[in-house]
Design a protein that fits this description.
The chain is mainly α. The chain has a single domain, classed as A middle domain of Talin 1 (Up-down Bundle). The chain contains eleven helices and four strands. It has a two-stranded antiparallel ribbon with strand order 1-4.
Length: about 325
Amino acid sequence: MTEILLPLGSLILGFALLIWSADEFTDSGAKVANIFNISPLIIGMLIFGFGTSAPEMLVSGLAAMQGNTGISIGNAVGSNIFNIALVLGVSAIIVPIKLNGDIIKKEWLFLMVATICAGLLLYWDRRLDVVDGLILLSLLVLFFLYTFKQSKNKSHNEFEELEQSVNKSEITKTWLMLIISLAVLVFSAKLVVWGGSSLAKIAGISDLVIGLTVIALGTSLPELAVSISSVLKNQFEMVVGNVIGSNIFNTIAVLAIPGIIQPSNVPAEVFSRDYPIMLLLTAMLFFVSYNFKKNNTISRFKGFILVSVFCYYMWILF
């Protein structure tokens, strides 16, 4: 009994700390961005996108260092599926999401290209190695360059409501909280990896399935919390921007980590089951967001469709 309670407690505590630290890290990052007058687009796509994807990166890195590459790959793919099907779907069900289609179209295109590139690399030799990791990281550099270029366009102001007024005297405190929250992220990611891999061994479940479900859900909770909070405040562009930004980081940063740290073969199930679902949902993201009309809305009906795809995926997974 003790051998189950200890990793289960580690998993629950790790998730709780992940949620708190990711929220605090994102909040402090936004304050720092505002202090230095960084554009709203960068706050949304980079600070929030990176902040809510930090748990996936840390979990993936720690899992890879421990030889659990299945958890790393499953976490990256599973988190993308959770973000679109569950996070965006649930958010739309709560409040229909009104969007600026032109902005969403450009960001989505980069995500789709990254998703296809990642798929081709995985299918090429059925391995995730250092070369694949470096290619994916080069896409990350292109994403940074693209985002900074887009930030110069004054029409990209969809995240202005998120700006916070920060007193200059609070700069030291803000930086301190940023460092503390990052340290807690590292510690909580360690707890999640240890608890998840231990439970997987006890239950005889593969690392890949644990990464695709329990850990992917746990590391996607920050996105879910941020998105629900945003739709309740009518910050609709923030919701989709957060999902797209997080999925870009998951695809080209989180997936690159196990390739660089611990090259390994990619489980066959990823090709036959997981990647196709992720690709399908990435394509659906465009069609539910962009209606070729002036006023684009992700309705409750579309939200139910996304959640239905998620339920179907959970059904075939088990």
